């Protein structure tokens, strides 16, 4: 891949993704797959005004070794230095860039019970820091190719060719062309205008029906709004949290969801794939799940805490999005969720509340925003999905027909 194109991509992440402010600290979390691109990205962060850039490297084989050899007590402990680092994040509010590239099957064979218990024990200590940072800092999730990920997407190609093809797919769907900044300005406007249309309807509930068996109804919070594309932090800084993104999303009201939904794409969760699954809801809660592959992992996911079985997001994505039209199954939520309508189990978004800056996080949750240690998106959209909105004045408005916008 040409370095000029990669530099355009890095510039997009630094300037349009997290929108680095002068002398702001930047944290980049990434795997070991593309160190040359990370170097370019660090350079672009400094050019954008960063005062300090810190890299946190991850490596799935090491993660597996840690879970194999460390005791649950050791894995569950949040060390003093970790808490001091979290406090630093609260005080300084650095930008956070997450570069995903990991193998979709990279944690296959790990002791899931041990992993989940360790996460559950750590979370109560981490949560207060996370809540203090909520909506106050800029963050962006983007992607670079990993070798095993590329081979998963393009199994018939040699390693080098697969990586090159995945680079092409990432850059195309991320709108990295001759002028990616202008492309993203136009894209953000389109998503903003669609959200405005939806918000002006006064939606009380959304009804999903598909010929694959999906038959589902979910309620909205009265003063919640759809959002899409760029967001504004509580510090007043505009940023794009996902590159790419095609969704108009909202956090539904906790406790109001009935019916069944069928997943239309595999879900990569904790380094393993859950495939061919369905989720049935009663009184807003996932009460029954089935999966052709990794059903037990899905059951563990919705039992991570009280909020894990409730919805945190409803997202509308047409099947004619660039990601969907690529014809690729990415086995990575960042891309697959932007190829199809999806739901998310777990944590909702406080900034779904209109004028959320006037409320505390607890007040947003009192209005119906779900709270959880997880936020896991799964895809339910396809060409046969229809969605209607029932408005507060009793009208029924078509939102999606045959998997795409009805307006």
Give a quick rundown of the structure.
This protein is α+β, with helices and mostly antiparallel strands and 407 residues long.
Q: Can you give keywords for this protein?
A:
407 residues; 27% strand; 9-stranded antiparallel sheet; globular; 4-stranded parallel sheet; single chain; alpha+beta; 19 strands
Distance between the termini: 38 Å
Overall pLDDT confidence:
96
Low-confidence stretches: none
What is the alpha-carbon Rg in Å?
20 Å
Structural class: alpha+beta
What portion of residues belong to β-strands? 25-35%
Shape: globular
Largest sheet: 9 strands, antiparallel
DSSP strand tally:
19
**Helical residues, percent:** 25-40%
Helical run tally: 13
What would you say this structure looks like, in words?
The structure is a single chain. With 407 residues, the protein is α+β, with helices and mostly antiparallel strands. The protein contains 13 helices and 19 strands. Strands 5, 6, 10, 11, 12, 13, 17, 18 and 19 form a nine-stranded antiparallel β-sheet that branches.
């Amino acid at each position: 891949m040409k370095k000029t194109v990669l530099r355009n991509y890095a510039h997009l992440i630094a300037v349009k993704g997290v929108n680095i402010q002068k002398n702001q600290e930047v944290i980049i979390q990434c795997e070991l797959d593309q160190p040359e691109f990370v170097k370019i990205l660090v350079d672009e962060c400094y050019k954008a005004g960063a005062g300090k850039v810190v890299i946190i490297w991850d490596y799935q084989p090491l993660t597996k070794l840690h879970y194999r050899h460390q005791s649950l007590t050791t894995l569950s402990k949040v060390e003093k230095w970790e808490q001091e680092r979290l406090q630093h994040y609260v005080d300084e509010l650095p930008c956070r860039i997450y570069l995903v590239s990991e193998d979709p099957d990279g944690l296959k064979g790990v002791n899931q019970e041990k992993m989940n218990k360790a996460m559950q024990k750590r979370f109560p200590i981490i949560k207060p820091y996370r809540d203090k940072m909520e909506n106050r800092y800029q963050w962006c999730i983007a992607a670079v190719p990993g070798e095993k990920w590329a081979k998963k997407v393009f199994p018939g190609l040699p390693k080098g060719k697969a990586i090159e093809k995945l680079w092409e797919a990432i850059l195309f769907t991320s709108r990295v062309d001759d002028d990616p900044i202008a492309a993203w300005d136009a894209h953000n406007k389109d998503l903003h205008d669609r959200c405005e249309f939806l918000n002006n309807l006064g939606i009380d509930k959304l009804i999903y029906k598909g010929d694959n068996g999906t038959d589902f109804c979910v309620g909205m919070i009265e003063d919640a709004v759809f959002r899409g594309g760029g967001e504004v932090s509580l510090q007043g800084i505009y940023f794009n949290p996902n590159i790419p993104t095609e969704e108009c999303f909202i956090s539904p009201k906790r406790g109001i969801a009935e019916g069944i939904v069928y997943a239309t794409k595999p879900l990569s969760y904790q380094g393993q794939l859950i495939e061919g699954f369905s989720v049935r809801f009663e009184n807003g809660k996932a009460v029954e799940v089935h999966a052709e592959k990794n059903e037990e992992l899905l059951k563990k996911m919705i039992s991570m805490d009280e909020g894990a079985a409730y919805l945190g997001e409803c997202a509308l994505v047409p099947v004619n999005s660039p990601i969907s039209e690529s014809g690729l199954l990415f086995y990575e939520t960042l891309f697959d969720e932007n190829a199809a309508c999806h739901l998310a189990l777990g944590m909702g978004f406080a900034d779904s509340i209109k004028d959320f800056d006037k409320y505390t996080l607890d007040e947003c949750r009192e209005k119906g925003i779900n709270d959880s240690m997880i936020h896991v998106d799964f895809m339910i959209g396809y060409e046969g999905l229809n969605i209607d909105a029932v408005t507060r004045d009793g009208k029924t408005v078509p939102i999606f027909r045959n998997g795409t916008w009805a307006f």
